[in-house]
Specification:
By secondary structure, this protein is of the alpha+beta class. It has 3 domains: 42 residues, no CATH class; 52 residues, no CATH class; 99 residues, no CATH class. Helix 4 packs antiparallel against helix 6. The longest helix is centred in the middle third of the chain and has 37 residues. The two termini are 29 Å apart. Bound molecules: flavin-adenine dinucleotide (FAD). Flavin-adenine dinucleotide (FAD) binds next to helix 1.
């Protein structure tokens, strides 16, 4: 079955994840109007009611939440020397730092490395191209694009002046693009986690 989900909020994303768990053969596309890196903070605090829904739908995630989350019920209001306690507010949450460093960062590190590899290659090409046309760092800065540009004037008498910086640019750009490709392929094959 092909499913189109309109909206990548918690509802849309979790529906897509749960549906794939139940039916791996389904093809699901989530359409979100906001940019991919816009964030609005999901799951800061969960009520008992929300947790009950998650327990019902996804026992594995619920079990992890149970282990990691702090839970509370009473809310104390401190006013001058008096403490007023209000009960019946079942809530659970975990520290943002722990969520970030223990769960989000380790799980997104591979994707970050792939993006970093691809970005380094393209950044080298942009910077050297700018220097080649005279818009980037210029001599005496040691910059490969400027070296190629300067060496181009002596190509018949001293070819190595343009050749070696040009080769260095090609090697660095291709090496980082290949590195990103290899990591991406190994991720897709499940060899890296
Ligand atoms: C300030 C604040 C704090 C909150 N704190 C908590 C909390 O601590 N704990 C908690 O459990 N809940 C909290 N909530 C409530 C929680 O954010 C919502 O219950 C939850 O976001 C609802 O999820 P949803 O997927 O149904 O809708 P939404 O989160 O509204 O997601 C809908 C998505 O659909 C996208 N969309 C809409 N129309 C289109 C379209 N035509 N095309 C493409 N995309 C579209 C929107 O951009 C949006 O990303 C908080 C809410 C707010 C405002």
């Amino acid at each position: 079955m092909r499913i189109a989900v309109i909206g990548g909020g918690p509802g849309g994303l979790y529906f897509a994840a749960l549906n794939r768990q139940l039916h791996p053969e389904h093809e699901i596309t989530v359409w979100e109007r906001n940019a991919a890196d816009d964030t609005f903070g999901f799951g800061v605090v969960f009520s008992d009611e929300t947790l009950g829904g998650i327990e019902h739908a996804d026992e594995q995630v619920y079990g992890q939440m149970q282990r990691e989350f702090a839970r509370w019920d009473d809310i104390d209001v401190h006013f001058r020397d008096e403490v007023l306690t209000s009960g019946g507010h079942g809530f659970a949450a975990m520290s943002r730092r722990r969520l970030l460093f223990k769960h989000i960062l380790p799980n997104s590190l591979d994707a970050l490395i792939v993006k970093w590899g691809a970005d380094v290659g393209s950044t080298v090409l942009v910077i050297t191209s700018l220097s080649f046309i005279g818009a980037g760092p210029q001599p005496p800065s040691a910059e490969w694009g400027a070296m190629v540009s300067e060496g181009a004037g002596y190509i018949t008498t001293a070819w190595w002046m343009a050749f070696f910086p040009g080769i260095a640019i090609a090697i660095v750009a291709v090496a980082f693009a290949l590195l990103a490709d290899i990591i991406q392929e190994r991720l897709a094959a499940g060899e890296v986690r």
